[in-house]
Amino acid sequence: MITEKLQDIREVRLSPLDLLPQHDLREKILDLVLRGVPAGAHSAAKAHLQSFRRELLAASVENVKVAVFGGGTGLSNIIGGDSRLSSWTQKPFVGLKEIFPLTRSIVCITDNGGSTGELLKDLPIVAIGDMRHVLLSSIQLANLQKRYTIDAMEARAVAAVLSAVFNWRFIGPLERNRPDFLNIEAHLSQLPRPFEQFLKSLFNYLFSDRRLRPTLKRSHCLGNLLLAAAIYREIDQGISNVDLAGKQKLLHKAIFSGLNGIAQAIGAGERAVLPCTSTPAQLRVLYTNGVESTGEHKLSEARRGFPVESVEVDYCDTVRVYEEVLQDIHEADIVILAPGSLYSSIIPVFKVPGLADAVRHNRKALKVLVSNLWVQSGETDLSIADPQRKFHVSDMIRAYEKNIPGGTKGLFNEVLCISLKDIPASVLQRYAVEGKIPIFLDREQLAEQNYIPVECGVYSLDALAERGVIQHDPDTLALAIKGLYNGRSCFSETLHESACQAEASPTTCQPPQGGHSQPFQRHIGIMARLNALEISFIGGENRRAEEFKSTLGDILLDHPIIPLRHLEYFSGLHCISREHWHRDQQWDNVFSFFDPEDRCIKIRADQIFIREKLEVALMIALGESLLGNYAEKKMMKKVEVDRIHLGRVYHLFLRPRKERDCFLSQEQLATFLSLARMCPTSDENHYTRLVNNDEAFTPPGLLMGLMYAWYIDNRFASHIEYKMSVMKIKQTDLIPEQLRMADRRRKMIAFFKDIVFR
Predict the structure, then answer these.
(1) CA atoms within 13 A on the CB side of 538
(2) Least CB-packed of 238, 596, 714, 740 within 10 Å?
């Protein structure tokens, strides 16, 4: 037997590739490209591997066309490093753009936070913050050298100036003679003369176009204002912002020309960065508990405690896509889906009609999904498949499959994942202590979904050493893409199979035609309503009415889910000092209410100087105002039997229908009162509720306000969050009342989603 086993061993023929520990050919190729030939390899095997590696790296990719989809930090980082970091100026010419000069970025436009959100209040354009970020990361050494006849050292100096200018953030208002702005402007003298003149012309235009003046009063990132100036410079100054909001076709052309002009001037190249659509849009997210939320920044801030069910995009007009973008996708040799926020990056891009189909119809391209590295709070901290466990790569793909019209087939084949075994255990342990958890690769699940996981060490050693963070390394990732592209002939059969699958998966999406108001239009409506209100300060505490209205406007605009119609149910807002505050606080510490007597919202004045407290107070009172003067009389009566005090009965008498000023119809009001556990009587306007001795009771008006605030943001009403926690408990029929309670909670959420917020 021993002799026979020895003979079996002698008959085995090993390939040099067998010296590489990975099982998959793609992973072997990438290991060879990224790490080189194993040091202990036999000389003959080493020669073969070295020759193979040289061929993989030597094949030119200068004319290879790359289309990359994504948004924000993840996209900018793989394109050319995160240009918002101060360390970026030390190595600005890295990543995909340097290995693949013909790289085009197609960027998500649903962001509505930060400086971008401030711009959207005043201008009827798409979100441009992510495009500014990606544009700066896209500047190429060769382009700068050719355009301005400078050497590599001078090009790095140009990148440093651009970083200082485009990333400068200020607290508004911005005035021309402001010292810190003059200091930023002085940086321009370090640029080549033509480049200096180009940026100075944008600076001058920024202050000369009256349409841009309102946004100069706010806090901003200067780079966003420069992009806005470049766009507006393409539009006749006689056309106002109000007119522009209805002329999206005009903006469509201006956005293309403005962005393209800046891209070429800064050395990013023609059409280096373009939006997925020129039509303003906003994100709408549905959670598995039935709550629907609007606005991308609300998603990132949310602590709903439930997974995301689905994502939609609401457009303000007919969706327009640049023909040049579709052409770039059609001609792409490589298509990359960049890492980024799961529900607010790739998915909104492919919600745009035509983009997913354009990728599917390109059957010659290498198509790669670059997987996210870490769980993101609010998006990937809970799995919809199993909320009890953490997020896996298959969960990410499942979310794409569910939310992208037509599914994911034909959009990508390989899934490029970071190799966790390459990361020091001490780093993973430290991350775990901080609550940061990696997104785990589950190979078997990906294989079942007909995708090819490619695991390799594409994280940045520099970022780990300098900032103690794990993120994709732009150069390593670009090299990995090059290895996959140049080695694609080794596994072409799999690509052919995926292409066939793509052909069998047509999209069923109907092009959305829009109709939702833009933040710009919504802001005008909000401020018009607030300016018509009576604002008063009673009892000493005071604040400038105009400044206060501006703060209220910002709060209301921050919650796009609130219909403007809700603002019609109160006629004023009174801020009342503590000494003059007479509301009974025996059962709660809610320092605001709606007073049906004068149709005014009343807020205790000490709440108005801290935005978070003002926000909660406003939301609760605003919710209460929707009931209006629905109650004609309310009373609490004792219940006694045989001289024993058993409790109290709360009586609610509704005002007759014709005299009622209420957001809800008679039927809707009856539904709400039923959900509030009020019992109807034979009189349609009389409801009761039995309350035990000393038991706290939330009357319908206050419940309406608390539910309204909770639905908008569950952190606003911990009392309601406590009530809703029953929905997180595993349901059993052991305690039937628990099932009934959970059902009431679901119906209450559905009522607010479908009736109140519509």
Answers:
(1) 17
(2) 238
Residue 712 within a domain: yes
Query: Do 396 and 412 fall within a single domain?
Result: yes
Burial of 177 (0-12, 13-18, 19+ CB in 10 A): exposed
Q: Taking 80 as the threshold, does the pLDDT of residue 37 lie above it?
A: yes
- What's the pTM value of the predicted model, to 2 decimals? 0.90
> Measured between alpha carbons, how far is 632 from 617 in angstroms, rounded to an integer?
24
Residues 262, 383 within the same domain: yes
Check whether residue 296 and residue 374 sit in a common domain. yes
Range 256-269 average pLDDT: 97
Cα-based torsion angle of the residue sequence 594, 600, 602, 608 in order, rounded to the nearest 10 degrees: 120
Kindly report whether the peptide bond that precedes residue 438 is cis, defined as omega within 30 degrees of 0.
Answer: no
Distance of CA 68 to the CA centre of its chain: 18
Could you tell me the residue range of the domain that residue 44 belongs to?
2-58
Which residues are within 8 A (CB) of 273 and not within 5 positions of it... i.e. 6 or more apart?
Answer: 104, 105, 107, 131, 134, 135, 138, 259, 263
Q: What is the pLDDT of residues 721-731, one digit of tens each?
A: 888 888 888 77
Please state, in angstroms and rounded to a whole number, the distance separating the CA atoms of residues 678 and 676.
Answer: 6
172 and 289 co-located in one domain: yes
Q: How far apart are CA 358 and CA 572, in angstroms?
A: 52
pLDDT digits (tens, 9 = 90+) for 6-19: 677 566 666 777 77
pLDDT of residue 14: 66
652 shares a domain with 543: no
The one-letter amino acid code at 168 reads W
CATH number of the CATH domain containing 242: 3.40.50.10680
> Is 247 within the bounds of a domain?
yes
Last residue of a domain, one of 13, 41, 58: 58
What domain count does the chain have? 4
Q: Do both 167 and 30 map to the same domain?
A: no
Strand partners, 107: 70, 275
Does 404 share its domain with 287? Answer: yes
In a domain, 521, yes or no: no
| pLDDT tens, position by position, 322-338 | 999 999 999 999 999 99
Residues 54 and 74 in one domain: no
DSSP code for 516: P
Among candidate residues 575, 591, 625, the one where a domain is terminated? 625
Of the candidates 396, 392, 394, 415, the residue with the CA atom closest to the CA atom of residue 404: 396
Report residue 434 as tokens.
């901080």
**From CA 694, how far away is CA 714, in angstroms rounded?**
27
Distance in angstroms (rounded) separating the CA atoms of residues 88 and 478: 17
Could you give the dihedral angle defined by the CA atoms of residues 158, 159, 160 and 165, in that order, rounded to the nearest 10 degrees? Answer: 90
Candidate ranges 221-225, 556-560, 578-582, 691-695; pick with highest mean pLDDT: 221-225
Domain-located, residue 630: no
